[in-house]
Design a protein that fits this description.
The complex is a heterodimer. Chain A is α+β, with helices and mostly antiparallel strands. In chain A, 31% of the residues lie in helices and 28% in strands. In chain A, strands 7, 8, 9, 10, 11, 12, 15, 16 and 17 form a nine-stranded mixed sheet that branches. Chain A has a six-stranded mixed sheet with strand order 1-2-3-6-5-4, sandwiched between helices. In chain A, strands 13-14 form a two-stranded antiparallel ribbon. Chain A starts with a helix and ends with a helix. The model of chain A has no long low-confidence stretch (mean pLDDT 90). Chain B is an alpha+beta fold. Helices cover 29% and strands 19% of the residues of chain B. Chain B is built from four helices and six strands. In chain B, the strands form two sheets. A four-stranded antiparallel sheet of chain B has the order 2-3-4-6. A two-stranded antiparallel ribbon of chain B has the order 1-5. In chain B, helix 1 packs antiparallel against helix 2 and helix 2 packs antiparallel against helix 3. About 16% of the residues of chain B have low confidence. Classes of the chains: A alpha+beta, B alpha+beta. At the A-B interface, helix 8 and helix 9 of A face strand 2, strand 3 and strand 4 of B.
Chain lengths: 350, 146
């Protein structure tokens, strides 16, 4: 992408945001604190802000005293009549993971999410981004994990990585739960929450490896469960909650057990095995990386070998376990805490 | 000679090579002598020399080594993990973690190359908005109900 084309797109995005915000009185502004980064969100409507800030509340920065490291503009075309700019320059459907290569370059990333007809764009140099969606009513996955692509890109730029994993624990330390959709991550994470464990996320969390031990940072105060999982966990049926027909959202805004960070002590790969007795056993790090990496890379456009390398380095630092899930859900929280225990690791691998 | 396939990223961890095709979403595990063969090919070693080297280490499995190695390389090419290349051999060592053979002792007995393929993530990687567009065409989507 040439410098001229890049500047043209960035100017067009800024102008589009200005027009979107001019439709209503002023942008609705919220601030986030993600690890050490400050992020400002400017929403064109109260409705979009309300839909997204429920899950983002866990990282909301209400004190907000410092300037933002990056500013993200959010609007929908239905309410503002302002589309994502430069659509005429996108000749064909996006490739691979929704990456819009015609509009992307070294420090500008643009992606399209077909399922929500939404665009994500981030200019790393200008530290400005935009999320433009077609409809004013967001689908479940955009409410439960809002702005995931933009937050993922920004984090990667800052040397941290969003991974497709749940994270739960107690006493400030816990485990990552890795695996593709349907493996039991969310159910295990919510089971842990219901048992009184701290909760960082059920599907995505931000991981940094700067410290002595890896740290999982919360991104979204939400969980998504199938009706069957809700029933098995003894939760009330999903009424008046956001649903996509297969899963419904468990809102966790201001939940006392949702925490911002956990020190990661182990990686657990759950699988639904059936039977009556869940089993926790050591797992090779190769298999653990296979559980963590493909879905993480598949869910973030432009993620590449650097992200894979990060995950390999992360997995190398952690004891890894396979958790075969049976019907004894009440034992799962204790097994997850066993996995985080150094004593268990020594006995499991001796 | 062989080069890494387009869109392929890989890492080695505890002797197992995990490769992902970022274009198709297919991911692979390579184990056994396949890891050594992979690294040797990317270093520019001819396949015949690689086979000869492995046979020298495991003379009792000489016949199997030839068959297994050629079949393995065929498969890596079929899966677009490696591509035949006429490019000059590079002497730059791979980044740490992509070749941990220096601190992994060779096994006592011959372990055939093993390539496992997983394609259950393909739907995350491949966008098909044909099914998600309105009559107006991409990128316009039909109205959605919540």
């Amino acid at each position: 992408m040439s410098q001229v084309a890049r500047d043209c797109l960035c100017s067009a995005l800024a102008e589009a945001a200005r027009r979107a915000f001019s439709r209503h009185h002023a942008p609705v502004v919220h601030h986030l604190r993600l690890a050490s980064d400050r992020i400002s969100l400017r929403f064109a409507t109260e409705s979009l802000a309300a839909q997204m800030m429920a899950a983002l509340s866990v990282i909301e920065d209400r004190a907000h005293e410092q300037p933002a490291d990056v500013v993200l503009d959010v609007w929908d075309t239905e309410s503002t009549s302002v589309p994502f700019p430069h659509l005429d320059r996108v000749a064909a459907r996006p490739e691979g993971r929704g990456e819009v290569v015609e509009l992307s370059g070294d420090d500008v990333w643009v992606a399209y999410q077909a399922a929500s007809a939404s665009w994500s764009a981030l200019d790393l140099r200008a530290r400005r981004g935009a999320f433009v969606t077609a409809s004013s009513a967001l689908p479940l996955f955009e409410i439960a994990a809002p702005l995931r692509t933009l937050l993922g890109w920004w984090s990667t730029y800052r040397g941290r990585h969003v991974v497709h994993a749940a994270a739960v624990g107690t006493g400030g330390r816990g485990v990552l739960l890795a695996g593709k959709g349907g493996s039991g991550k969310s159910t295990s994470a919510v089971t842990a929450l219901l048992a009184g464990m701290s909760f960082v996320g059920d599907d995505f969390c931000l991981v940094d490896t700067d410290g002595v031990r890896p740290t999982a940072h919360a991104l979204f105060a939400s969980a998504k469960l199938t009706d069957d999982a809700r029933h098995r966990l003894g939760l009330a049926p999903a009424a008046d909650v956001v649903t996509d027909g297969t899963k419904s959202m468990l809102p966790l805004r201001d939940h006392p057990l949702v925490v911002r960070t956990l020190e990661v002590r182990a990686l657990v790969v759950p699988t639904v095995a059936g039977g009556t007795e869940s089993v926790l056993r050591p797992l090779s790090r190769g298999r653990a990386l296979i559980a963590l990496a493909p879905s993480t890379l598949g869910l973030l456009p432009f993620s590449s070998e650097a992200s894979l390398r990060f995950m390999r380095c992360l997995v190398e630092r952690l004891p890894c376990y396979a958790l075969s899930l049976a019907t004894d859900y009440d034992r799962v929280p204790r097994m997850l805490m066993q996995a985080a225990s150094a004593t268990f690791h020594r006995s499991a691998t001796s | 000679m062989f080069a890494l396939g387009v869109d392929v990223a890989y890492e080695v961890i505890e002797g197992e090579l995990v490769a992902i095709n970022l274009g198709s979403g297919a991911y692979f595990s390579i184990q056994g002598s396949g890891v050594d063969i992979w690294h040797a090919l990317l270093r520019g070693s001819p396949l015949d020399a690689i086979i000869s080297d492995i046979r020298g280490r495991y003379p009792d499995a000489a016949e199997a080594v030839e068959v297994d190695a050629r079949r393995f390389v065929e498969r890596t090419v079929q899966e677009h993990l490696l591509v035949p290349s006429g490019a000059p051999v590079t002497t730059t060592p791979p980044p740490t973690g992509q070749d941990d053979s220096s601190h992994t002792p060779p096994p006592a007995g011959y372990i055939p190359p093993r390539l496992e393929k997983f394609d259950d993530m393909a739907d995350l990687f491949l966008l098909d908005p044909i099914h998600d567009v309105s009559d107006a065409g991409w990128p316009h989507v039909p109205p959605r109900n919540r």
